Amino acid sequence: MGNEHFSKGLRGIVAAMQISYEKHLKLAKKGIIGVPSDPHHFTGLYGALASRNKVCGIQVNEITVWLELTPFLYMEEKLAVYFLSIYAAFREIPLELSSKEKENLKNNVNSGVIRAFEKEPGRITAIVEKQFPFPWLSLLTEPTLKAIQSR
Asked: How many domains does the chain have?
């Protein structure tokens, strides 16, 4: 693991996450990591978040990392990488995000959750009902929560 994973501050965390994603994406494309049936992009997202968790001393199992990634798996690739990077900063230093960055993160997380719910309602319902400790849950709006609870 390179020193870029230890970056602090908003811009440092975002840059470290994006570098980590690119490294994991390249390894996935070479067949070195990941599951052949998973999109390489998903492996890149997983690797970036799992690496950040390790650097921050957050010990979670693989399934929990995949569940935390849920809204980002349903975003366009470039948006997913960017907003996962912003999300990592939101988890660590929420006060350093501008109100615009928080609002954009909130909007995109809600969109990702709605898309995920349309494809995998059980997954989203379980995350919300079991109250996993994912900071993105605090970003869910009332309309999103009502849509999830209505089924």
From this structure: 1
- CA–CA–CA angle 80, 82, 86 (5° rounding): 110
- State pLDDT tens for residues 10-53: 999 999 999 999 999 999 999 999 998 999 999 999 999 999 99
B/e letters for 115-141, b = 16+ CB within 10 Å, e = fewer, are: bbbeeeeeebeebbeeeeebebbebbe
Extract the residue ranges of the chain whose pLDDT is less than 70: 1-7
Using alpha carbons only, what angle is made at residue 100 by residues 96 and 101, rounded to the nearest 5 degrees? Answer: 55
Domain enclosing residue 32, as ranges: 3-149
- Alpha helical stretches, state H, 99-141: 99-119, 121-129
Q: What pLDDT was estimated at residue 4?
A: 45
Q: Which two tokens stand for residue 47?
A: 């690797």
Q: What is the DSSP letter of 97?
A: S
Lookup result for tokens 């230093």: 93
Dihedral, 12, 107, 38, 125 alpha carbons, nearest 10: 120
